[in-house]
## 1
Amino acid sequence: MQNHMSYMDVVGNNIANVNTVAFKSSRVNFQDILGQTVKGASAAQNGRGGTNAAQIGLGTSLGGIQTLMTQGSLQSTGKSTDLAVQGDGFFVESDGTQTFYSRDGGFDVGTDGSLINPNTGLHVMGWVANAAGKIDTQQPLANLVIPYGAQIPAQATQNMQFSGNLDASLAPGGIVNTTMTAYDTLGVPHTVALTLTKDATTANQWNLTGSYDDGTATAGLTLGPINFDSATGALTTPSDGLVDVSLSGTAIASPPLAFKLDLSKITQFSGGSQTTLLSQDGSQSGSLVSFAIGASGEVSGVYSNGLNQTIGQIALAGFVNPAGLTRSGQNLWAASSNSGTPTVGAPDTNGLGTISTGSLETSNVDLAQQFTNLIIAQRGFESSSKVITASDQMLQTLVNIIR
């Protein structure tokens, strides 16, 4: 009867936590107790077969309470700091002294910029990126901080890439104009007007020139000819598609401003001319205005100048025997001697799961099964009590016979 009361307690706890974020249900395992041997077993002898032992069981014992670490379903919340682990792994949280593990990813940003669990105040652990946005997962774990307002310095343009098409049917002497903006070391933008003129004497050749304001006047640029294959329309000269551009003058900080213009994706086909700037790596200075967390746990900062840079990496911990973890309350787990040593790494590595942003993991409690278990526990308790009542009546009858 006592064991069935424990069974009822476990079922009741499961039902109570059916809406608890990332809750892991438990189940009870019963074991029989060593029986009383009335007659021992005997081997076959003297033409007779052997006989089995006669044992009377002495009841049941609580073998153990097992935690079921199965995946709960993911529920979308739309909040960018709500995270869910899809697969194996636990978030690592710390108060500076103790380390805990949790599947509850209902995080928020604290007043100091730290990523925390607002229900417990524990810091979310991971790795902080260096100034260049690089992550070293071999370093010790640290509190993840979202440095709102942090400045990123200006970057001078070093590479620029265009794509598009030059109209092969354009008459000799025809021109195609486009513009580009390059940034110097102080982040000052400089507009360069580019002109592609179809050569009048050489087939499939265009002459590239440009102009910009050097601070005192309009300076010209002669960037050389570019050539295309007459059969495929692909760029042939320069062979690597790169054109060196150099800007100088009083308007340029730390002149010259030198960068490479990549035209390898420019083609020459009939059907109109159009050029598009695909990318360029220069920028003005900016400050952190928001952040996003990817499936691999990388925390990317979004800056006011339009750049994105990694500012941190969320860590996950895996265990050989996660069912061996001990509950610490508040959706937290602590390592035990039977859980194994935690393996800490980035999400989607070493068998660790991925992170789903804007979602929370729900409880893995099967409510229908728990109600079934509730009835089973109740019936088991009632049956045991009836056995005791029946035994008491039999003993009472025996006493009355003696009297």
Note: The CA atoms of residues 76 and 86 lie 13 Å apart.
## 2
Amino acid sequence: MQFEVKGFREGNSGVVRLSVTASSPQEARDRALAQGYYVLNIGRHPKDHVASHGAQRPPLSAALLSAELLALLRAGLSLPEAMAAIQTRQRSVAASRVVDQLCKALKEGRSFSKALEDTDAGFTPLFIATIRSSEETGDLVESLTRYLDYDRRMNAVRAALLSASIYPTILIIAGFLVAVFLMGYVVPRFSRIYSDLGPDRIPAASRALMHLGQFIDSHRTILASCIAAGVLMSIYALKQPSIRTRLNRVAWSIPFVGARFHLYQLARFSHTLAMLLRGGVPFVNSLEMSVGLLHLPSLQNNLLAAKRDISEGRAISNSFARHGLASDIGVRMLAAGERTGNMAEMMDHVARIYDDELSQWLERFTRLFEPLLMTAIGVTIGVVVLLMYMPIFGLASSIE
């Protein structure tokens, strides 16, 4: 990994920038110090940052590390012993390198949160803040348990959304493939059968279908290449953050669906905020750390505006209501939490309410949407089949 180190050295004029190859910021600092430089700042090298941007997932999952650590700590091992035991397990090269870095940092006397922060595994600020809070309270087991519970809830929300979209996606793909088979294979062969009939013996709709089938059959290679190129371009486009942002804006502009996307964002935000508050992170700092969870720039701006209002002494419930960061029932519950002083527990209750509301909506939506989709696909295929056989029905009527 490349790091850019800003520093100066006695005998040289001005600040210089060094490109240092290291496995962590601490190692980059040590190498710069070894060369006689006084380090002012360390950051990721721009080229390295671009290369690493868009990585699909970190080499070591925070949830997996938490689960393994929790099991070993509950068995009576200390943190260094537990990490040493984890180090012996077989895993990928990148994950093993991260575990080695953590074990080395613990042996050097660094705190576990600092070791997590210095690795190149890309652990989220939420996970690092959870470990840092456990170092203040001295209860790492409780913090890991809380983080795993948080991760399970977040995965449950994502799994519900994914499961709700799987069946409709399969139906759409299956319907598309059947339509392609009919138009690219069956219809052209029917058109050859009807070629001896006069144009006046074939209904206009059937003629149009036959012409379309013949066009697809004669240009199948070009059309297949266009479809494949379209799929590849769509996959590439969906990986671009700017295009995903535009698609999010389009989805949010849909009146019925946009409200559910907003609710999903609020559920994630509330779960994370409750997690940070339970870990002892101040409320304003928790808001700042949660900005990245809101994918729409307008919501991020609303959160920053609410943070400013709260920093100026305004009530949390009023700030959230003013900037659209809580529903009506969420605002009332937050007001109750302000009176009792237990905002972490109240934020957790709000997140559960959002989860329940989202689950109920998904269940109703799938029950309504799936039959409608099946009906639309069936009608489309039925119309194609009917238009193919209409000339035969006309011939039978003339014979009679």
Note: DSSP finds 17 helices and three strands in the chain.
## 3
Amino acid sequence: MHSVSANAWLVRRFAQFGVGLFLTTHFYASAVDVSSMSFKRMTGCAQVQSQTSECLAEPLPFGATSFVLAQGQIEKNSAETLAMMAGDLPKGTTIVLQSTGGDLLGGLLLGQYIRAREFNTYVADEASFGATGLQDATALKKCISACAYTFLGGVQRRVAPRAELGVHQFRSKDKTLDSVQTQKIAATLGKYMDTMGVSRNLLDQALMTEPGKVMLIAEHNRKSWRVETENDQSVGLPKFWHIETSYGGKQLVYQSKKQSNTQAIVTAAFARFDGQMKLLLIVKPDPAQEGTSTWADFFTLRTDLMLRVNAKNFTLKADTDWMRAGKVNTEGTRQIWYLLSPELVAQLEGTSAFALQPLWRALPLGLDTETVFLTPGLPPLLQRSF
């Protein structure tokens, strides 16, 4: 959720620890230097005419046609490296991970970037590399350590039959972590897993693994802990809605949408309070508007909200004033709550999309007039007691 789990928050959190966390493990150590993670666009071998072309062998997951081979050691700037080459790649692109780990913060930032772009992740085994090579042979069919957290960023996630995904205790490259630092890092990883919709059982497994060893996560645990997504998305659509736990312990079901021509983001989140469903609207400004008085002026008064669903318009009155959206968000990010009637909740459970249009006095710079949210995956979340 862009408005809640911003990259800047992760960077600040790790800066507080005063240590550089580099999650590699002696269990898989190589006798030679391991190359930094590189990213290369690939295609499936069935899609190329020449047998000499470098490609990934089938079968490949998700029915995708765009692939990026990510191999080597994860660094703090790996997300930036991927962003520089991934400009026009469509959502649904599969990131094929082959890595024995690297920098923990870098792994989390890379996972966040993958989720923001709505990419999928896949840990391939040797069957995929008949017509291409790996620069780091020790990484073949592996995604362990920091890579395992990057893997969680995929909208859809799959591990090949003979591939390995593993975790271990985190530790510093240069000094011993004290108990306070360990607890803070564990809390940060737990929040990251909540954001990605993954059970914290994975974190428990990492913390319980004996020092110097890696625990490979069995397939049944990958599925039951939602580390690996089930092959049940028959409509071929990713799960657009995610769950995050707020600082007050309330679970929010949310979806974030970047605005058409700027980096501003609008998020719709649902939560239930004492049996009453509420909608939380979060508005994050484009960086150019951050901190300007012009931007702040739009949030001095409550704003009505038009919700369009199934060709019907519902005007919602704000249940609160605009407020800053938590300490982990940018200074200019604002949020406001709305009550939802049972009729409107029923409408949301029976539609493929809905649109939100705040009834601004004047449209804030950088925002679209309305934002459309797709609903696959939302109905069962609205029906549960979260």
Note: The radius of gyration is 22 Å.
## 4
Amino acid sequence: MKGTLYIVSTPIGNLEDITLRALRVLKQVDVIAAEDTRRSLKLLNHYGIKKPLVSYWKEKERSKAEEIMRRLQAGESVALISDAGTPGISDPGSILIKMSIEEGVPVISIPGPSACIAALSLSGLPTDQFTFIGFLPVKQRQRQKMLAELSIDTKTMIFYEAPHRIIEMLLDMEAIFPGRRAALVKELTKMHEEVLRGNISDILGSLDKSIIAGEYILVIEGRKRNERIPTQDALIEVYSLLKKGFGRKEAVKRVADQYGISKKDLYDSSLNKIT
């Protein structure tokens, strides 16, 4: 009989942010697969949980997933945890979860903290629809290209960023998302938690007075539906639809209707680029 894989969410900072169900599962499983066993021991020792640990980090994710799969196939129950939050969300875990599903191993979610959802709820921005982006590309040109593509998205967007790149990211956003409302959340649930709200320029100004350190989450509002967008941005969406197999007329009609711009002008402009 096959074992069960439990996807267990753990605190993103404050060790009290863990469910009773998560603690019970961690105490009952045969083995715990942890992203970093040293960091996970802090949580496990705090709650007196002593179980065999298997390290499961991104560089060795596939080989470690195969090792854990052998345990599951042998009937052992495994709790998958990351350093903080929910495994598989900008953390290792997705390979093992996919492998377990394909192999017919039962997979059970033990929900709990998620940094992106916590930051969204604090932001004061629309929460009915949102897009989770995670980390942007490190190289500036790739980052700017991705932000330009996202600039036409009407949904609230959530980004993660490291402290040594946060200023670079915000400067790019200031140029591409001018005037957009945003919230920058630092060290969520920890002692030095801080939330900066305003437009990107306001947040950059506030950072001049802050120590830049820790983990950052940026939540930024999407494009307003009545906001006219530059033709170049509309063309990006047209080309995206063309790559998905839409005919040119249909792609242009969809984009023009959505953004209230001239179909003829957009169609003519789309002919100037070979896709």
Note: Residues 116-220 form a domain with the Methyltransferase, Cobalt-precorrin-4 Transmethylase; Domain 2 fold (CATH 3.30.950.10).
